[in-house]
């Protein structure tokens, strides 16, 4: 039951849907997009520092994502006693895993110097956006959980 829920959470997410859409776009329009990419000049400093974006987003997620399951000392007990806490924990685990998984292609492309080629830049950008969507999911989850806990304390 939990393994199926893990799979569902992984596959039915904004990040995974975005990556699927990006892959389809690449397959269908990749050649056309590559022609426009080759015309664009990319700043060397931007390429050198591009990795800071996905690393900082993943770092934020790993550091602040814990607030999703441990909001604070007073209300964490309420959250952990909630009957569906196991579902929240699965969402948390998948989100943390995604944060690392989506960072890896960015690191690989940047490390091999593939940002100046269309395929590498596409891969880097799509996974950097997926990392951002993942972080945004954590951010909205933190807000939703805090709101629910405030209502539970009333």
Textual characterization of the structure:
There is one protein chain. The protein is 81% helix and 0% strand. The chain is mainly alpha-helical and 154 residues long. The protein has one domain. The mean pLDDT is 92. Keywords: Membrane, Transmembrane, Transmembrane helix.
Index terms:
single chain; 154 residues; elongated; 7 helices; mainly alpha; membrane; transmembrane
Sheet with the most strands, sense and barrel status: none
How confident overall, as mean pLDDT? Answer: 92
**Weakly predicted, low-confidence segments:** none
- Approximately what portion of the residues adopt beta-strand conformation? under 5%
Terminal residue distance: 34 Å
Shape: elongated
How many E-type strands?
A: 0
Could you state the order of secondary-structure elements as H and E? HHHHHHH
Radius of gyration: 19 Å
Secondary structure tally, helices: 7
Helix content: over 70%
Structural class: mainly alpha
Number of domains: 1
């Amino acid at each position: 039951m939990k393994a199926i829920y893990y799979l569902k959470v992984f596959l039915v997410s904004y990040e995974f849907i975005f990556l699927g859409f990006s892959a389809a776009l690449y397959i269908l329009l990749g050649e056309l997009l590559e022609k426009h990419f080759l015309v664009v000049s990319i700043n060397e400093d931007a390429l050198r520092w591009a990795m800071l974006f996905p690393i900082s987003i993943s770092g934020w997620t790993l550091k602040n994502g814990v607030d999703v399951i441990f909001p604070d000392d007073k209300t964490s007990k309420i959250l952990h006693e909630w009957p569906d806490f196991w579902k929240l924990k699965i969402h948390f685990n998948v989100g943390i895993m995604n944060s690392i998984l989506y960072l890896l292609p960015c690191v690989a492309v940047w490390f091999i110097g593939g940002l100046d080629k269309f395929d590498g830049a596409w891969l880097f950008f799509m996974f950097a956006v997926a990392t951002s969507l993942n972080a945004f999911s954590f951010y909205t989850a933190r807000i939703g959980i805090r709101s629910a806990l405030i209502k539970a304390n009333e």
